[in-house]
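INPUT
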Amino acid sequence: MQIELAKRIQHTEEYYFSRKLREIDALNQTGAKVINLGIGSPDLPPHPSVVETLHQYAAMPTTHGYQNYKGIHPLRKAIADWYHRYYGVSIHADRNVLPLIGSKEGIVHVCMTYLAEGDKALFPNPGYPAYASAVRLSGATGVPYKLASQRNWLPDLDALTKGDLSGVKLMWLNYPHMPTGAAATTTFFNEVVAFAKQHRILLCHDNPYSFILNNQPQSLLAADGALDVAIELNSLSKSSNMAGWRVGTLIGAEERINEIIRFKSNMDSGMFLPVQMAAAKALSLDPEWYQELNKTYSRRREKVYQLLDALACTYDKQQVGLFVWAKVPASQADGYALSDEILRQSRVFITPGGIFGDGGNAYIRVSLCATEAVLDEALDRIANAVITQ
Ligand SMILES: Cc1ncc(COP(=O)(O)O)c(C=O)c1O
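OUTPUT
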């Protein structure tokens, strides 16, 4: 039986990684043992005290019921304290914080709350594909804005102002930027807040990478007057090694939280209490947690540089975040061609930059979520393939 799909899903394909992982699984079934350097899912565990907190609360008979739609107070308080301690941003635990089941779901909630057919939303190209998909699912029209290495992957706000901003209601922004690893500056954050105010655009900043290989975590909400025009999503997936736990947060003005909860409370029924208590524990960890994590990522990144050198790719060493973004050599048609070649010849999967938008076509993105031993093996395979070509 054929059932016509809803209009909103007709131009939305299955998520790239969901398809690609199936292809890699199929190769592995034939004994290929593919090394996957594609996805940004931390391979290291959370802090032992976080896992212990989960155990402790899960063992109690009284912690298994539905939870508050706005999360439990200890989690909201831990989020507010974390924002104050690490970003210097003061927010109210009961008014400005909405815990999320991962920031990816938050992206959809925000789009569904504010956008409908006839509206427009700006999103970065290259950028995290979920922004464009969520805008499309809401029925609104996505307007990609080009990012370029010459501007350190920051949007050209003057060009946007001179262009057509009619109908633009919302702008997705993400720094440290994925996939390019570019960090924003305080000046830029102030400028983009002024731009949003001037054009009455809701700024939606997605901030999951600020603690990874970055000495100065920054929140857009530290900019003057940001809370009037901006919301920020954050996540425990990357910086607390809790990607599978699904914990994120949305920070915004009280009206924004109450508006978004009108949609979100119709989608889910809260988060398992032991997960919330464990997340609060993770957010209360001292800076040494991030420092230790970054020592590991820093060593891995050196190996990734070697791997990219073997592929004759070029890259900027100022990048931050969980990946290295690199330009493919002129001998390659684009990042897809190089990615396919490495998968075929070396059984190593590296993400082609084009999946983040055509602004990433000439690039590849290598994840740091693999041990040094695995990266050594990947380098061996790639170096051998280059030599035997
Ligand atoms: C830029 C960006 N935002 C959001 C997410 C999703 O994070 P979460 O696990 O909190 O849903 C990712 C995950 O890769 C990401 O790269």
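end of record. Residues 287-310 form the longest helix (24 residues).
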